[in-house]
Each structure stands twice: as C-alpha cells, then as structure tokens.
Amino acid sequence: xxxxxxGENRLEVERRDREVAEKEKxxxxxxxxxxxxxxxERREVVEGxxxxxxxxxxxxxxxxxxxxxxxxxxxxxxxxxxxxATNEKKQQRVSRMRQLLLHMKNETRxxxxxxx
Length: 116
Known about the structure:
Structural class: mainly alpha
Distance between the termini: 115 Å
Helix content: over 70%
Oligomer: single chain
Low-confidence stretches: none
Largest sheet: none
Number of strands: 0
Strand content: under 5%
Radius of gyration: 36 Å
Shape: rod-shaped
C-alpha cells in the first residue's frame, strides 16, 4: 500500500507541477503581449506628439518671421505681450503694463533721433 500511495502521490505532484508550469507560461505570454501593446501605444503617442511639436514649431517660426519683418518696434513689443486680463488683480497689472508701454513709446518718439 505504501508503494502504491507513493506512486500515486508522485504522479499527483508531477501533474500539479505541469499545471503550475503551464499557468506560469500563460502568464508570461500574456505579460509579454501586454508589454508589446503598451510599447506600441507609447510609440504612437510619442510620434504623434513629435509631429504636433514640429508643426507648432514651424508655425511659431512663421509668426516670429512675420512679426520681425514689419512694423515699428513698439508694435512688435506689444504683440509679444498678453494684455488681456482674466480677473481684477491681473487687470491692474495689465493696466499698469499698458501705461508703462505707452509712456516708453511716447518717450522714444519725443526724444531726438541720433544717427551713429
């Protein structure tokens, strides 16, 4: 009886070992597939971001070229500054910035122009 029990027990342990090995193999395969899918998704996101950034950079360069190709200095300065306020505190700051810009603009216009 003891030998028979030992034989059955050994077979049962081997069966369990095979089941565990198969389960581990399935888990590893699923994990590998998940990692591959995540990498592919990340690559798509990175490529999309890159394309958007390149487009935005080109648009920014066009705007900068257009800005510096015409207009007075003060028009350029004002176009680079956001003078729109969203709340009262920002409104006070923007108002002060407008006053300073107008003062500086008028100062340079009234100052005698010297040529070097």
